[in-house]
Amino acid sequence: MANHKSALKRAKQNENRQMRNKAIKTRVKNIVKEVRLGSADAGKDTSDTLNTAKSIIDKAAKKGAIHKRTAARKISRLSKLVNSKSA
């Protein structure tokens, strides 16, 4: 465990960031799963879900929870999946 005041503060900041990033990443995983399952059901309109997913993924990249290229890759693959199912 940290002994200095600055090290204790840094440890606390790291813990807070870790919890925040974990929540953001979980939200991304859940929305990606929702889009994938929604695209399996042909009856549902997945464009709204896809737009929501794009927004959530972009926000996660903006906040630094995931890398910007990872976000772009996820959005690209989801868009490709939805477009292939709708065509």
CATH class descriptor name: Mainly Alpha
**CATH-derived architecture:** Up-down Bundle
Number of domains: 1
Structural class: mainly alpha
Provide the helix percentage: over 70%
According to DSSP, the number of beta strands is 0
Which shape, going by the Cα principal axes?
elongated
By CATH, the superfamily comes out as Ribosomal protein S20
> Radius of gyration from the CA trace?
17 Å
Major sheet summary line: none
Given the structure, what is the number of helices?
Answer: 3
What is the CATH fold-level name? Methane Monooxygenase Hydroxylase, Chain G, domain 1
> What gap, in angstroms, lies between the N and C termini?
57 Å
Integer average pLDDT = 92
**What are the low-pLDDT stretches, counting only 5+ consecutive residues below 50?**
none
Give an account of the 3D structure.
- Helices cover 83% and strands 0% of the residues.
- By secondary structure, the chain is mainly alpha-helical.
- It has one domain (5-86): Up-down Bundle (Methane Monooxygenase Hydroxylase, Chain G, domain 1), CATH 1.20.58.110.
- α1 runs parallel beside α3 and α2 (47-63) runs antiparallel to α3.
